[in-house]
Amino acid sequence: MEKTFVMLKPSAVTRGIIGNILSRLENRGLKIVAMKMTQLTEEKAGKLYAVHKGKPFYESLVEYVTSAPVVALVVEGEDAVKIMRKLVGNTNPKEAESGTIRGDWAMTTTKNVIHASDSVENAKTEMNIFFAPQEILTYKRADENWLY
């Protein structure tokens, strides 16, 4: 099974919609194999968003993701990266379809409630920023036999 990294951003935490978002992931059949609430430091935010360093929105992005707690997750499932990207929706919430996480709960591009890895390679890098290997668990969901 493929694993991917997901982060519920400060607006998801402070608006009290963590449970709603987690339900979407689990209802889709994805399995949460690691999860923690944490306060990002500028250093950790810099590692996560290193690909955006030097872009005009980088400083405001780092300021936003360090402004309140986030919830970091490792999610597992068949084609987990692709499925998560579809669930998350367009980066710009104004272009995100209704029924996606950003389409339903995000208002602006910079405060779009959720981050999801865009590739298996980036997922591995991002997971390593937040989780030690022993923190990523293995278990079977009760419905796993008929999901896959």
Oligomer state equals single chain
Which word captures the global form? globular
Q: What is the name of the CATH class?
A: Alpha Beta
Give me the CATH architecture, please.
2-Layer Sandwich
Relative strand content: 15-25%
Topology:
Elements lengths: L1 E7 L1 H5 L3 H11 L2 E8 L3 H7 L9 H8 L4 E8 L2 H9 L12 H5 L8 E3 L3 H11 L13 H4 L1
Antiparallel strand pairs: 1-3, 1-4, 2-3
Describe this protein's structure.
By secondary structure, the chain is an alpha+beta fold. The protein has one domain (2-136): Nucleoside diphosphate kinase-like domain (Alpha-Beta Plaits, 2-Layer Sandwich). The chain contains 8 helices and 4 strands; from the N terminus they run βααβααβααβαα. It has helices spanning 10-14, 18-28, 42-48, 58-65, 80-88, 101-105, 120-130, 144-147, and strands spanning 2-8, 31-38, 70-77, 114-116. A 4-stranded antiparallel beta sheet has the order 2-3-1-4. The longest helix is centred in the first third of the chain and has 11 residues, at 18-28. 30% of the residues are buried.
What features would you highlight for this structure?
148 residues, Alpha-Beta Plaits, 8 helices, 4 strands, 18% strand
Concise overview:
This protein is of the alpha+beta class and 148 residues long.
